[in-house]
Design brief:
alpha+beta; three-stranded antiparallel beta sheet; about 55% helix
């Protein structure tokens, strides 16, 4: 019997309009629901087994039945056409998923225009790094695609609320009530069957206090682990003994235990308060025992995306159970083709065999063919019969050709026909048109798959950026983003997360054709566009993983390099005595850090004999400029700690600048006093001794003037060198 959602044992709103705490009130009710849905799925499970069998290589006829009927001699072979079609389809889906620069693209709303671009790029790179460092991610996605293409559904489940890792589920382990739409937003109930090993269950409750706090029933889990063991294990009622066995050798212990058949049951609760839609609850029970919940998590998930992504192959007729995968669609035709080919082999074997006809009834009881070297001696009472089987062969061949035509018309997007060349060779335009026509059907499936990947990656990113996440890779992901200058608020204020699109419709040939067309207009593209096109071309030829081998990315971010280069140019301008203006597009943190570094460099130069007057004049422009950057930075409440640290550095530089200014002022006062004294002496008339001293002083002053002029010239030369270097760096970046 098939059960719809309205026929399942779910709690309803009371007569006074009060919703229940949960629509699944007891473990017994949950187990009853699971059993009803398992029975409802029995026929579909039988079909899935047949489809899997034909792809795995099961023969078209039952060997046991052929033996019982005395037909063991008949050809009974699976010619593996289903496996070939399936492999080609899987390759196409894996191509559009993996042959992209990044798995997903993230865009943040935080910061000004230039900051948003820089932050988004850094977050995207680090999110991609998170996926690639996860050893299970690629494996999980391949399993999901396998189930999706074969059966129509490749479920991905987030089992742990504090983890960003998903688990691929077999299509048959996802149970959905009848008449449920193929849109998770409309679901009421979903069941995911799960088999646990003993050590897997123990992992969740090894810290009993923490396990209870998140919803696990520690005693119920312990009981399930004990009951899964063999008889000699079950005799030990002391839990500490079982715990010690798992700790000593969890794999060996689990190998002795049977699998624990559990079910994750998800249900949408009734909305409460201001909620538009109800939240999702999760319960874990043993499939056949309703003593207690192993796990209970009521109303903690906001929507279905937080727990389950079905990953549909197509939409069917709008109902979940109408969605069919490639395996189910091709099964009847492939089964017929295997039988026809087996018949052709039998006919060919018959045509190549020796046919004898007995002359008497007695002769049929004794047949003996005696081989004598290269010849055979036939029995005397038999005649050799010559027969032609052309007509017998023609019929199976005709059927096979017809079935091949059906396959090509229904599944052409996954298998390219290799027609024999006829007449003149086709032009490049004709070849491209043929390939495009063969790929038209796949466009809608690819678009649908990307839409589902968008929702999956959005949820994965939400979990990875959550402050309560427990995955070490996710924690590292957050730290790396902050270390690259992106504020934490940028990963909280996200505009969108999308799966990165790839062109070519899963075909490397189509992708190369597209790139070849773009190469024709590469001269009209900006430098960034040409670099992106070159990277895509390398990826199409050698694979996405090889791009970095030929186009090495700079270690420092381009955005940061541009900002630092701009700040260095400003330093050079201020050294000439000209002020510079602060703009909103500037990164105030990087600018302030660069200016402070320059200030520290010149402070050290002043201590080592540099021109104090010139340095003091530069500080008069630099320090207010840095202060304005810090003021802009402190206006952001999320950057106040960084602004405070910079303020401390600016105070130290200001203190040194004040001391230097006082030193320069004292020197000027001394020079003015000396000049006044000299004037007085000149008016009184100099003595011979004074004239000698004056001449010596003039020579000394001339030497000082020459030294000062040389120092100024050196500073000007250094300034020109710095500006030239900055221009060269800017040109290189461009």
């Amino acid at each position: 019997m098939n059960y719809g959602a309205n026929q399942l044992p779910l709690e309803n709103i009371s007569a006074d309009g009060t919703p229940p705490e949960s629509r699944l009130s007891s473990p017994d009710a949950v187990v009853d629901l699971v059993q009803m849905m398992i029975r409802s799925d029995e026929e579909r499970n039988r079909i899935r087994a047949k489809v899997k069998g034909i792809v795995d290589g099961n023969p078209p006829y039952s060997p046991a039945q052929l033996k019982r009927t005395g037909q063991s001699y008949r050809t009974n072979v699976n010619f593996r056409e289903a496996e070939a079609f399936f492999a080609i389809s899987l390759t196409a889906f894996y191509d559009i998923f993996s042959e992209t620069p990044t798995y997903a693209t993230v865009k943040t709303n935080h910061g000004n225009d230039s900051e948003r671009v820089a932050y988004s790029r850094i977050i995207t790179e680090e999110f991609d790094r998170l996926q690639k460092k996860d050893r299970e991610f690629d494996y999980t996605m391949q399993l999901s695609q396998h189930e999706m293409v074969l059966f129509g559904v490749g479920p991905l489940v987030f089992e742990n609320p504090t983890s960003c890792k998903a688990r691929a589920v077999k299509a048959g382990d996802l149970l959905i009530p009848e008449n449920t739409r193929s849109n998770p937003d409309d679901w009421e109930v979903a069941v995911v069957r799960r088999q646990y090993q003993a050590h897997e269950l123990y992992h969740y409750i090894r810290d009993p206090k923490a396990a209870k706090s998140v919803g696990w029933d520690v005693d119920a889990v312990r009981k399930a682990i004990i009951n899964a063991g063999p008889e000699e294990y079950r005799k030990q009622k002391n839990w500490e003994w079982h715990q010690q066995q798992i700790r000593n050798n969890d794999i060996h212990y689990s190998a002795q235990c049977s699998l624990v058949n559990a079910a994750h049951v998800y249900v949408r609760e009734y909305p409460t308060g201001d909620e538009v839609e109800g939240k999702i609850s999760c319960f874990i029970v043993l499939e056949d025992k309703g003593d207690s919940f192993l796990y209970e998590y009521i109303g903690k998930h906001e929507n279905w995306d937080e727990v389950l992504h079905p990953m549909y192959y197509d939409k069917g007729d709008g109902q979940h159970h109408s969605v069919k995968g490639l395996g189910i669609k091709m099964y009847p035709v492939i089964e017929l083709k295997n039988r026809q080919k087996c018949q052709l082999v039998d006919v060919a074997a018959m045509a190549g065999s020796l046919h004898l006809q007995p002359r008497t009834p007695e002769a049929s009881q004794k047949v003996s063919i005696v081989p004598m070297g290269s010849i055979n001696v036939l029995p005397a009472d038999y005649d050799v019969v010559q027969r032609q089987f052309t007509g017998v062969v023609d019929a199976p061949l005709a059927v096979d050709r017809e079935l091949e035509g059906v396959m090509q018309s229904n599944l052409s997007q996954y298998r390219q026909r290799l027609d024999k060349p006829q007449g003149n060779p086709k032009t490049a335009t004709e070849v491209q048109a043929i390939v495009q026509q063969a790929s038209v059907i796949g466009k809608t499936q690819i678009a649908r798959y990307y839409q589902q990947l968008d929702r999956f990656f959005a949820e994965k990113f939400r979990r990875a950026s959550d402050s309560d996440v427990t995955d070490p890779l996710a924690i590292e992901f957050q730290k790396r983003i902050v270390s690259r200058g992106v504020p934490k608020e940028a990963i909280k204020d996200i505009d969108y997360v999308e799966a990165t699109r790839n062109y070519g419709q899963g075909s490397a040939f189509m992708r190369l054709q597209t790139i070849a067309g773009l190469m024709q207009i590469s001269g009209q593209l900006p430098e960034s566009g040409r670099n992106a096109l070159t990277r895509d071309y390398i990826a199409a030829l050698a694979g996405q993983q090889q791009v970095g081998r030929y186009m090495v990315q700079p270690e420092q971010d381009v955005y940061a390099k541009d900002q630092i280069a701009e700040a260095n140019i400003e330093n050079a301008v201020m050294q000439t005595g000209n002020p510079v203006v602060i703009t909103d597009s500037q990164n105030h943190l990087l600018h302030a850090q660069t200016h402070l570094a320059k200030g520290g460099e010149l402070a050290q130069a002043a201590q080592q004999g540099g021109n104090p007057a010139a340095i003091a004049e530069f500080f008069g422009l630099l320090i207010p400029h840095i202060g304005e950057h810090i003021m802009q930075l402190s206006a952001d409440p999320n950057r106040k700690n960084e602004a405070k640290e910079l303020e401390g550095q600016l105070e130290e530089l200001t203190s040194f600048a004040n001391e230097l200014s006082n030193q320069v002022a004292q020197q000027m006062e001394q020079q003015q006093a000396q000049q006044a004294e000299m004037q007085q002496q000149q008016q009184a008339g100099p003595t011979a001794e004074e004239q000698i001293k004056a001449a010596a002083m003039e020579r000394d002053e001339a030497r000082k003037d020459a030294a000062l002029q040389a120092e100024i010239e050196r500073n000007n030369m250094k300034l020109r060198q710095e500006m030239a270097l900055a221009d060269a760096k800017a040109a290189a970046n461009l």
